[in-house]
Amino acid sequence: MRPTKLAAMLAVVGLLAGCSFDMLTNRVNPYRVDIRQGNYVDQAMVAQLRKGMTRDQVRFVLGTPLVVDMFRDDRWDYVYLHRPGRGQPEQRTVSVFFKDDLLERLEGDVVGGDAVAGAAAPERSRVIEVPAPGAAK
Question: Domain check: are 18 and 67 in the same one?
């Protein structure tokens, strides 16, 4: 065979092999790891918070915040990102605001775990009501 025909045949075989390899990998579907980063905060944890709690009490309930702004000492941000192996990533953000080192209010998009399964996705940046101490649950 001539070298040009051989080169053309190798090119065609290479392209077909590349296409078939792509089709093979789409059918095999290798396992992809779920990636979870940040602070997981759910509705049950938020329900334990009361207005007037100290920073240590809030840290005990929610954990150490992911983001503490050094210029705004009165705010903690809890950020959670979940990237499933397949599907859309999910991000949650909860901001805790303090006044005179006591819990004043929360803002964010908290979704409870099993308690609100199947509920619609929450709207972003809503204010979460924090009950006063001694209020009924």
Answer: no
